Amino acid sequence: MAGVRVFVLDEEDHLLLVQSDYKKQGPEHMIWVIPGGGIEPGEYSRDAAIREVKEETGLDIRVERLLWVVEEKEPNGEVDYCHYFLAEVTGGQLSKGYDPEWDMENQVIMDVQFFSREDMSKVSNVYPEAALDEFWDLAGSASTHDPWRSRPSRGFGSRK
């Protein structure tokens, strides 16, 4: 499966996160995740990034650059790809959005918020872990870096 995740910064360099109960197991299993999701057939990854952020948060964005391409090998041998982008808010109204894969009675998005780098250190259950450290160093730099990441799949992880 191909997907996107979008690191969205506001004008004060706060990072946008979506609180999700995607396993539908209650508050103790909720995670804060970078907005994103699957790329639809025939859709470009940048367009998927814009669409996913709008669906989940109500915000319009401009994709600034590609940060990473993450390749994850599943236990069954399949390989998933995810493009991680950096974006800025250009409009819209911040609001708890929806996941079109779920009907309205079973939505998994519980909240949306912007967090400062300092506040991020106090948030548990964040995905991906790069939102806690590596992203902040990269976002503030114009330097080139290797955007390719390869790892075994860990699914939705957290660092507590």
UniProtKB/TrEMBL annotation:
This is NUDIX domain-containing protein. Residues 141-160 are annotated as: Disordered. The keyword Manganese does not apply. The lineage of its organism: Bacteria, Bacillati, Bacillota, Bacilli, Bacillales. Its cofactor is Mg(2+). Residues 1-138 form the Nudix hydrolase domain. InterPro entries: Nudix_hydrolase, NUDIX_hydrolase-like_dom_sf, NUDIX_hydrolase_CS, NUDIX_hydrolase_dom. PANTHER family: GDP-MANNOSE MANNOSYL HYDROLASE (PTHR43046).
